[in-house]
Amino acid sequence: MLTSVALNPSIDKTMVVENFELNKTNRAISERTDLGSKGINVANGAKTLGVDVTCIGFLFEKNGELFTDNFKDRGIKYDFIMCDGQVRTNIKVVDPKNNTLTEINGIMPSVNYRHVQRIKELVEKYAAQSRVMVFAGSLPSGAAADLYRELIEICSKYSVKCYLDTSGDALREGIKAQPFMIKPNLFELEQLFSTKIDSDAGVVEAARQIADSGVKCVVVSLGERGAIAVFQNRVYRVKPLNIKAVGTVGAGDSLLTGIAVTLDRTGDFEYALRVGSACAASCVTKEGTQLFVKDEVYRYVDQIEIEHL
Questions:
Q1: Following DSSP, what letter does each residue of the chain receive, concatenated?
Q2: Which end of the chain is more exposed for a tag (fewer CB within 10 A), N or C?
Q3: Strand order in 2-6's β-sheet?
Q4: What is the pLDDT of residue 291?
Q5: Which parts of the chain sit beneath pLDDT 50?
């Protein structure tokens, strides 16, 4: 079983605005609303790939039923801790003319000490019965930056692979627990090292430094430039597919999900990287936070080119 840990879910409102301008009245040509956040996306993506998946984490009373109703409809198991407040709404403005994405993240809801203690207990419960645990997304207000580190350390007592996808101090602290894999994007990698990284060689060097600290696998998503992965002293360069991107929201989550699911199924990292990249490719052809389509993924897999550096 795969367990996705979603500590800070969101409602994503995506608006497409051609030639978006600051300090002007802009008019959307289309809009959609999706349930989002990395942990929620991973659970939905894993279900699309046919995995037995459970989503655990925090939900908030005022609008949390939107998520539980969706999971019921999709047949996704869940076990949430309900907290006061409401799930944040994030605004994403896509400008297809200028190829830009502007994001405004809503106010984070807050959790307290009691909630944090309960999530530790819940993670231990599911670590004991899962093969894969995915910790993805930002932390809610009230949670310490080292919460992911504590949760992954709890999992270390069990035979479960932990994947971490977050940023900033939460990533810096989480790495100390030596998760099996992390998946930063280039900006998050630069944040981690407090420096600009402007070459593939720089990405590889940074990824190797992280691997030397005990993280077995480092996958760096590079957007339209593909991805670079370091695993078992080998370096993989994923070339991007030549497809028209409509939106990039959820592409990194799709990459992560495809890798986690396929590596657990097959034990073949290069093939898992290929499937994850195909998931990301399918995702970017969709508006909003729609993730990938299974049939498209397996059509793209054979088109993914990977070279060894």
A1: -EEEEESS-EEEEEEE-TT--TTS----SEEEEEEESHHHHHHHHHHHTT--EEEEEEEETTTTHHHHHHHHHHT-EEEEEEESS--EEEEEEEETTTTEEEEEPPPPPB--HHHHHHHHHHHHHHHTT-SEEEEESPPPBTS-TTHHHHHHHHHTTSS-EEEEE--HHHHHHHHTT--SEE--BHHHHHHHHTS---SHHHHHHHHHHHHHTT-SEEEEE-GGG-EEEEETTEEEEEEPP----S--TTHHHHHHHHHHHHHHHH--HHHHHHHHHHHHHHHTTSSSS----HHHHHHHGGG-EEEE-
A2: C
A3: 77-83, 53-60, 2-6, 132-136, 161-165, 181-182, 217-221, 227-231, 234-239, 305-308
A4: 83
A5: none
Q: Each residue of 98-112: pLDDT tens digit?
A: 989 899 999 989 999
Instruction: Give the Å distances, CA to CA, from 40 to 68, 96, 254, 267.
Output: 11, 26, 11, 25
Domain boundaries, the chain: 2-308
Q: What is the dihedral of CA 59, 61, 62, 65, to 10 degrees?
A: 70
Identify residue 107 by its one-letter amino acid code: I
| Amino acid 187: pLDDT | 95
Which residues make beta-bridge pairs with 136?
A: 165
Q: Please state, in angstroms and rounded to a whole number, the distance separating the CA atoms of residues 94 and 247.
A: 7
**pTM higher than 0.90 for the full model?**
yes
pLDDT of residue 250: 84
Instruction: Give pLDDT tens digits for 234-245.
Output: 999 999 888 877
Cα 137 to Cα 256: distance, rounded to the nearest angstrom: 12
Pick one of 1.10.10.10, 1.20.1530.20, 1.20.1540.10, 3.40.1190.20 as the CATH number of 2-308: 3.40.1190.20
Q: Listing from the earlier edge strand, what are the strands of the sheet with 88-95?
A: 30-36, 10-16, 88-95, 100-104
